[in-house]
Every structure is written in C-alpha cells, then in structure tokens.
From TrEMBL:
Molecular function via GO: enzyme regulator activity
Protein name from the UniProt record: Nitrogen regulatory protein P-II
A single GO BP: regulation of nitrogen utilization
SUPFAM superfamilies reported in the protein's UniProt record: GlnB-like
Length: 100
C-alpha cells in the first residue's frame, strides 16, 4: 500500500484558545483537524476551577512546511502568554493528497 510521509502536529493548550488556534492552522494551510478535551498536569501545574475552562488537544496532519510555520507562530505568539505545548510526530498517511 502506498503511503505519504507527513507530520502530525499536536497542540495541547487552554480551551479558551480553541477558535484562535483553529484560525491559525487554517490560515497556515491545514485541511482539517481533530479536537478533544483533555486534562493533566504540567510545568504550570494542574489547572483548577471551572472558570479557567478545560484544556484541549488539537491535532492536524500537515506537510512539514506547514508544521514548521505553525510552530513558529506558536513559539512567537502563544508560548510566552498561555499554557500551551506543541510537538511533531512523523506519520505515514494513506490518501495523503487530502492533507496537502
């Protein structure tokens, strides 16, 4: 079976960033995404209180160029101000033409 090498970008952050992050990934060229609510603990410790909202995990399969562009945006505009983490994973995708 023929697969296409692409990049899975995973962003975990404050739920209040949901719409802003969706706009960022669409502008950068992502063709789609998956969002799930999540919880946990990290360097900024566990989030408490319902007023702060839930965390979310946003995942999108993109070209390496789009992934790099988005990491630059996250690094410049989000990491200094919000509880956000992002990481990349190489993936092999069937029907990869749908993602680029």
């Amino acid at each position: 079976m023929h697969t296409v090498p692409l990049t899975l970008l995973t962003i975990i952050g404050e739920g209040l960033l949901r719409e802003r992050l969706i706009t960022e990934i669409e502008r950068a060229g992502a063709k789609g995404y998956t969002i799930t609510e999540c919880s946990g603990s990290g360097s900024r410790h566990r989030r408490v209180g319902e007023l702060l909202g839930e965390n979310m995990k946003l995942e999108c399969v993109v070209s390496p160029e789009v992934a790099d562009k988005l990491l630059g945006i996250l690094s410049d505009e989000y990491f200094p101000h919000f509880a956000v983490i992002a990481y990349l994973s190489p993936v092999s995708v069937i029907r990869g033409d749908k993602y680029v």
